[in-house]
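Following up on my earlier thread - several people asked me to post the actual chain instead of describing it. Fair enough. Here it is, all 381 residues.
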Amino acid sequence: MNKKMEKISQIIMVSVFIVFIFGFAVWSFLLKDRKFSEMENRNLAQFPEFSWKNLKDGSFTDGLEKYMSDQLPLKDELVTLKTDSDRLLMHDLQNGVYFGKDGYYLQDYKENTKQVEKNVGCINDLAKLCPDTDINFMLVPNSISVMDDKLPKVNTTGSQQKTIDKVEGMLDEKIKFYCPMSDLKAAVESGVQAYYKTDHHWTSDGARVGFDGLMKFMGEGELKADYDVRELDGFLGTLYSKAPSAFADKEKMKLYTDKGNSLNVEYVSEKKTADSLFDSSFEDKKDKYSVFFGGNYANVNIKSTNAQKDEKVLILKDSYANCAMPYFTSMYSDVTMIDLRFYHIQALTVSEYIKQNNIDKVILLYNVDFLNSDNNFVWIE
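Reply from S.P.:
Thanks for posting it. Predicted structure:
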């Protein structure tokens, strides 16, 4: 009797497995392919074009593998289930993200020394090409460094402070260097939420702390603008996408608008203009951080009618700068943002742009993780 029951049990298990595998295959075949993943904020692989050449060189099978992975039914739900299963097993590191205290996701950091040195070398080249230009560099630490007390007790993350010290020591003496580490730590201790829990960016309030510290460092005086504040609900960021969990806290995102200032925002390459720093089309999407400008662009120029200083400022930036723009545009009458990830083979090099547009000062605004990993600083010259 026991052998009979064991045999029946084995048949049931095999049958369930076969139904599961073939069921998913049929389901996948019947479902309409998705073109974009809100969770991953990227385009998904589509069914590859077949040819004997593609089959022979392996590109068809590679494309098919990516297609099957991207178009797997319930993929987001299955990834979430895996993340929460790992968390229940006390695995605190998932896909490069630590699950920290108080619901904070903290992105792991390991210094890429060669990339850091290469990027700093490119920044130094700009100082040599523009010897008469006032150049300032704000290097922003990430949450894993400012809020290291949120990390699990067992972790192997690297020291961003060592990278910051190295960068400062390598910079051309003409470049004025400021890091808001101590200011951000003090703000967090006083109750300011300087970083999102589920995203790698600092918050608008964190950006204000960094901006105020930079202005003090540069001797620019206190910002006196009066802002309206609007909140967006339900934000889940990029770190959540790396390790989605049913236990993640949805957050509020603050949008600051200067009451006494009017703006003209020109997206230079796209040949379009706007009167706001915000793109409302992203308010109901998962990628809510792109509500700032609609994302990142090669060259954006912003003119303000009622700024405190009548100066032309160039900001070389990553996406950390986007949520700080309400403050910069209240301070300076003419602000240009250049993002080197997209500023390729332009009519003017960065140094030529500075000279031909009579830029009063240059501000580099980057976060440590970006400086540690991005390979587009070669376009800075």
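The two ends are 81 Å apart (CA to CA). That should answer part of your original question.
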